[in-house]
Amino acid sequence: MDTFERSKHITDTQVVITLRGIGELRPANANTRVSLAAETDEFNMPRAFVSIQPGAEDNTLWDATDRASDDTALVFAGGQPYEVLTEGSFIGVAAGQRAQTVLPFTTGRRDGLGTTHHEAGTLAAGTSSHLVTNADARFHEVNNLYATGPAVFPSVGSPNPMLTGTALARRLADKLAQFTPTVPEPGFTALFDGTSLSGWAMSTIRNQPGRDDSGRFMLIDGALQAITGTDIGLLWNTTPTPADFVLKLEWRTWRAYDNSGVFLRFLTIHSVPVFGYYGVRSVKQECLRMLVLFGEGSLRRALTEHIAHFHQERNHQGKRNLPLFPSPETPLAKSRAFRRTERLGGLLNFYSCAA
Q: Which end of the chain offers a freer environment for a tag, N or C, measured as fewer CB atoms within 10 Å?
């Protein structure tokens, strides 16, 4: 394509052949680099300065490539005179004579470095720790940061690098798509293995029209990421909780004011403590401080009764003075007659209108 304008007037009695040798510079050349210049751009940032200095081995390869081109031209000429294209015209070459005699290697024959080449290698990948990224194009110092494209090429030639860059991008995608399930430590059972939400269910909100979206959790890179809805929800593990256990988990918040947590030992998925911190304070002030408990069984009964009262019977101002999760038998219709339902011997009372 570079010589199309000069060659399009060739007649049918002439054959035009373009010979181009392509090689690559040797890597790890300290004189070939990208550095920041003192000059700044329109954003007041230092401009990148590209320095390309071929070494002795690079020049040897270049000479060998040009000699191979001359040898190939003689083969095509078949012992006949031929012509070579210079900067502006064709120059005749005698039969058996090398093109170098009329067109020296270093004069008007070679493309300038950086004119037909593509910049690459600023994030070079490989097995050496001196490179920016490893063989999987992952940054050495960051476990979940990868790069792709010509930047990760350890070396690059003259052809367009698009196909190689696309191949590396697909290779990286295949690599990232492979995820090994988490293996629990000895003595532990995995509740979440990083690959599936099997055994988990999202809580629902049934008594707040317009604010009944409890959000969801997404599986991203082997972790669960919370997506908020119109009100607070909970991802519920359906595995029965053992009497005694040790829970291990990794937790991350994106913002300092994120509001979330891990809740333990609730009755069912419908007994979600939407305001868990108020519930803890309430059970202390309204229940436990009023009782003399004898053993674990007594404590469990008191907590079970308070949780049921707190979520199924007690009105909450933030929920339009309705119970959080009313049980089917909880009457909500208004009338002049009231009835009282008591728990823990009248310590906790629920007043409702007669149906």
A: N
